[in-house]
Amino acid sequence: MKSFGSKVKALRKEKGMSQEELCEDQSELSVRQLIRIEGGKTAPSLSKMQFIAKRLNVPLPSLVDSEDVELPFRYKELKYLIMRTPTYRQEQQVRQINEYFNEIHSEFFENLPEDEKVAIEVLQTSMDIHLDEDVNFGGELVEESFQQIQLKKKYELNDLLIIRLYFFYIYFSNFQDDLFELSIVKQLCEHLKKQAQFTYPSDLFLLRDILLQAITILIELEEYEEAGDIINRTREIIKMTQDYQKQPILDMMEWKLILAYHNNRRAAEAKYNEALLFSRVVGNQHLEEQLIIEWKKDSL
């Protein structure tokens, strides 16, 4: 990938472009990232390569060899297994995910593009925060990764992973950390509601899960109307993908909203019974147990 950086640098200078001009508003590529790419110190992701080629008005193949563009199939498989395997804080599931991480680090990590290295760190940190409810080791990574996300309106897969980490971080820090701003949360939610049209069908499960996080946060912050909008959007995604694995969790979010915003116990209990029935139909005993615990807490 050193040849890619040197080609970009030479062509940029030939066209009389500064690094700032090439990076435009820095929402897709920061000047710092470009400096590292041109110096051969980091391997860019495919999306960054495409952005650079577009800004230089040249076809991507003229800048890079095809074998440098494609990520290893096994790496992509492991990454998706990590994202798609729910832990439910069960030891066996956590152990399996850690084995996936170990394989990535031993076989692929050193040669990954910088964006992918960050994505793996974000996935690991998100899992650690979720399992331990401890944000002491997450703040620096959130701060480093999140700034560029705020400039975007359309998100790629790795952007969604960073947003998920941000939501974990502010929730488990009880909204007390300096990184929490209600205006940022609302801005992200506004963009996330429109994100399905920009997301590959295979990645919609991640968008769905992030929207579920957003609902939890908005209810906690008493932003009830916004939470209701996102519940409706999440339901549309579940119906669109025909993936009903998280339907009971969405029902749980809805009963919590009904109790908090409408104070209607009968309607909330109907949603609870729907969630319980669905978890039994799919045979998810752990989720069924968690729903019972949550309903008892909400019924006090």
Distance between the ends: 60 Å
Q: How would you describe the shape?
A: elongated
| Beta-strand percentage range | under 5%
What is the name of the CATH topology of one domain? 434 Repressor (Amino-terminal Domain)
pLDDT averaged residue by residue: 91
CATH architecture of one domain: Orthogonal Bundle
Helix content: 55-70%
The CATH class of one domain is identified as Mainly Alpha
Multimerization status: single chain
* Helix-strand sequence: HHHHHHHHHHHHHHHH
Radius of gyration: 21 Å
Helix vs. strand class: mainly alpha
Tell how many strands the DSSP assignment holds. Answer: 0
Q: What's the tally of helices?
A: 16
Biggest β-sheet strands, sense, barrel: none
Low-confidence stretches at least 5 residues in length (pLDDT < 50)?
none
Write the layout of secondary structure elements.
Blueprint: H1 2-14, H2 19-23, H3 31-38, H4 46-56, H5 66-69, H6 73-84, H7 91-107, H8 114-132, H9 139-146, H10 157-172, H11 182-193, H12 204-220, H13 224-241, H14 247-262, H15 265-281, H16 285-299
